[in-house]
Write a structure and sequence with these properties.
The complex is a heterodimer of chains A (about 120) and B (about 110). Chain A has about 120 residues and is an all-beta fold. Chain A is about 0% helix and about 55% strand. Chain A is built from no helices and eleven strands. In chain A, a hairpin with a 5-residue loop joins strand 4 and strand 5. Chain A starts with a strand and ends with a strand. With about 110 residues, chain B is an all-beta fold. In chain B, strands 2, 5, 6, 10, 11 and 12 form a six-stranded mixed sheet that branches. Chain B has a four-stranded antiparallel sheet with strand order 3-9-8-7, with no helix packed on it. In chain B, a hairpin with a 5-residue loop joins strand 5 and strand 6. Classes of the chains: A mainly beta (about 120), B mainly beta (about 110). At the A-B interface, strand 5, strand 9 and strand 10 of A face strand 5, strand 6 and strand 11 of B.
């Protein structure tokens, strides 16, 4: 149980285009999903927290108009990188926290989406 | 603010050696503590966790004990295998449910 999927697993796009990444909790309902960005050989940086049915909360320094997050249901959150540029190339990872979880509840991570902007 | 500090890597060991990866944290309140592992080309997987002081998390031969007095959560394994080669992340979760990660420690186990 507790599987989180991401789609696509990798994407190459041209500069100026938009890319949508989906994050799904397959066998549990997630009140909260998180989006992270990971640069090569570095740690994960939290970008935003996504709650079902409400606006995402962005971390300081993350452009909310650049990285659009939608949490349409208890099993799906999407991250759209708008007008992508080469500096947006990175590994994007989502995680999901189960609906019944307390502060100590585990976050389950998706396998990540590698984005390359040419 | 809350933070996690891990020992610098890479850590290179021979198979069957003892492993310790140090992790210390700074937090207000009573965070939960986690170790995640990232194998090459894969996403993060929860390795173990502890939610209160003196709890010991364990999985796949790995152990870590939540030490409030030293604000530490060191990862240990008695005998590593080549298949344990990966990047290990220590993390804490506070009341906001956000995970704060350490910088990661790369482990390389040689046959």
């Amino acid at each position: 149980g507790a599987v989180v999927s991401q789609h696509p697993s990798w994407v190459i796009c041209k500069s100026g285009t938009s890319v949508k990444i989906e994050c799904r909790s397959l066998d549990f309902q997630a009140t909260t999903m998180f989006w992270y960005r990971q640069f090569p050989k570095q740690s994960l940086m939290l970008m935003a927290t996504s709650n079902e049915g409400s606006k995402a909360t962005y971390e300081q320094g993350v452009e909310k108009d650049k990285f659009l997050i939608n949490h349409a249901s208890l099993t799906l959150s999407t991250l759209t990188v708008t007008s992508a540029h080469p500096e947006d190339s990175s590994f994007y990872i989502c995680s999901a926290r189960a609906i019944s979880g307390g502060a100590g509840e585990t976050q389950y991570f998706g396998p990540g989406t590698r984005l390359l902007v040419l | 603010g809350n933070s996690v500090t891990q020992m610098e890597g890479p850590v290179t060991l021979s198979e069957e050696a003892f492993l310790t990866i140090n992790c210390t944290y700074t937090a207000t309140g009573y965070p939960s503590l986690f170790w995640y592992v990232q194998y090459p080309g894969e996403g993060l997987q929860l390795l173990l966790k502890a939610t209160k002081a003196d709890d010991k998390g364990s999985n796949k031969g790995f152990e870590a004990t939540y030490r409030k007095e030293t604000t530490s959560f060191h990862l240990e394994k008695g005998s590593v295998q080549v298949s344990d080669s990966a990047v290990y992340f220590c993390a804490l979760s506070d009341s906001s449910y956000k995970l704060i990660f350490g910088s990661g420690t790369r482990l390389l186990v040689r046959p």
